[in-house]
């Protein structure tokens, strides 16, 4: 193939994987990205890559919980009052997607993106020297309230129809999640086809180092715009022209594409984490999600990372870790947490109302490509996103699985 030049804007997990995949296909790639910092969403996530993520968040049961959410009675979701007017159109679209036919279609689309996710990461992680960051030990959703098996009938049906394997854990079997779990939970659903990354920030660092080691050009910059012209594209502040541009700037992507006429409905589902050591000899080998307790716990950096659900607020408003304060007593019910390590972390999941990322060609600018909006599953699906984008940018026959993720679906 001709050695086309590509600028990738954004060096979180999605931009890093995309840059590597483009490089593998012979493109000359320049990555525009700041240093790897806590600010990026890819730094502070739960590290979970699971086949169970084929189910989008907006499913029928969500509607019945809406009043609790709107009144901030449920710690899994908080809406900052000042943010409600701005977020209402997005929430309306999100709620409209709860009807079963839409859920089934989107789950099938996500299945195509998630099934190859771990293999795609392994392909990059080996040469990046990052294989040891991945652990294939499954993950478990845990339920405190009785009657959970019936309550999750819809999820079980979706998992089955998409080939997601799961095992039910009750009684003593719950002790396999962590010692003492059977005292607190009535049911566990273990998803064996899951890996977790024990330091998501380190993974981005290794991928970026591989990109540079393979001859990729990294510009430590966050350009303010993209300028189309007769000879391709320039990025603001730089003289060079590029044949193609891939926008992978996560929650900051809209600043780059809106001036070119693309109005895509992205919301920022903010989430927090705090890390702790475990004490009293307690250990945790694999992540779990305490559904009724509204937190995720992941073994991370030789301790555990506790993560909250969703906070709808303006992207750049200062951190308001109310949800952390609400969940930590519930975490302490079940785990022997030692001292908190460091400050709470705030991240912004860049989320589209249908729960699918935006992957594909921009409709009005040949050579401009989008890879953003990965919401809750950006770590998982980043490597496949990179592969799909690179194949499409190299002009390979269109991949039918990509159609569901097209930017054009929003009109
Ligand atoms: C609490 C929490 C838990 C999560 N848990 C999981 C999980 O277990 N599994 C999972 O799969 N996903 C999880 N996610 C989601 C996942 O973290 C995100 O979907 C993913 O990190 C998004 O990656 P990204 O590369 O698109 O964005 P980012 O990581 O935010 O990277 C975007 C980068 O672009 C840079 N940038 C901004 N503007 C510009 C510009 N103009 N030019 C160039 N660069 C620019 C930014 O500085 C940033 O470095 C979680 C998210 C949160 C908040």
Automatic annotation (TrEMBL):
One of its GO terms (molecular function) is oxidoreductase activity. Residues 6-391 form the FAD dependent oxidoreductase domain. It comes from the Bacteria. InterPro entries: FAD-dep_OxRdtase, FAD/NAD-bd_sf. GO terms for cellular component: cytoplasm. Keywords: Oxidoreductase. This is FAD dependent oxidoreductase domain-containing protein. It comes from Kushneria konosiri. The lineage of its organism: Bacteria, Pseudomonadati, Pseudomonadota, Gammaproteobacteria, Oceanospirillales.
